[in-house]
What we know:
Blueprint (H helix, E strand, L loop, with lengths): L5 E6 L6 E6 L2 E6 H23 L7 H8 L6 H35 L11 H16 L3 H23 L6 H25 L2 H11 L8 H20 L1 H7 L3 H6 L4 H23 L5 H13 L6 H22 L6 H23 L1
Antiparallel strand pairs: 1-2, 2-3
Amino acid sequence: MTAVAAERAAVPSRAGRALVLRLGPLSLRWRVRTLVVGAGLVLAMLALLVVAVSVGARSVAPGEVVLALLGVDTGGSSFIVRELRLPRALCAVGVGAALGMSGALFQTVVRNPLGSPELIGFTQGASAGAVAGIVLAGATGAALAGSALAGGFVAAVVVYLGAFRRGLLGTRLVLVGIGVGAMLNAVTWWLLTRAELTQAQVASAWLVGSLNARSWDHVWLVVVVLAVLAPACLAVAPWLRMIDLGEDAASALGVPVRRAQLVLVVLGVALCALGVAVAGPVPFIALVAPQVSRRLVRGTGLALAPSALTGALLLLAADVVAQHALPVAMPVGVATGVVGGVYLAWVLSREGRRR
């Protein structure tokens, strides 16, 4: 049996104190502030999860919610919590995490805070693929997810080939992506004009971005896909820090920049397509979450785990607000669109002042 030695030591660094975990030949280094922020985000998300399944047409006491989550049968409350409200809340957490990681990957590749999948055409590709699946084949469930994934990857290939000139420059990728996204939007609306009335209603409701009527089937889809993609993202996380320094510096440090960019784009598109397949094109979570997490951890680059936790918390909070805090309940995509639009205006204004 191989002996595994673990050693933990708190060491100072220029970016703050860090915790180093050594397991034999492997060594993991975590900034203490990142761990504290991550723990805070997890606690906030758990508290908000209890709130999300407590409130509604019939309120459930937090104690009954906790018992239901622990598997204790509390009568009608258990059905409301486990079958009606918990799947929706878990879908919000999973989709938000996927979009947060997707945004961090794209913003690192393009080295631009505007490099989110909905602004550079990948969300529109996934949306066009999903609408094509609904209109042309009546796709639902896994078939809908597959069509969204296919649409996202077709858009990614077109944008990647259009923007690639001896490497990927952030500004060129954003401009090509905006153009491709506009064309894909036109394709989506053309498909809607060719659809039957019922199909058009389903697709239009889905295009708003909503978590209504999400079930355990959607939850398991999110769990399975994230179980594959999240470890792959963490495996390439060291590339993010080096690419964030610039292509020349990353190459000097031994990073295969072209291959790394391609892998990061593929993972980002897959995560974005997962979110679109489950909840529709929910806007601005992928744009906002990485930047919010960056300010929370005060790091020099975009970290995947804090971005995922921030995305999950933001989407869950937006869904609670959209359902219960407004005079009229509305799809979560409307709430994130309003808040995200304000954030985008602030980012553009700040970039304009810098120049």
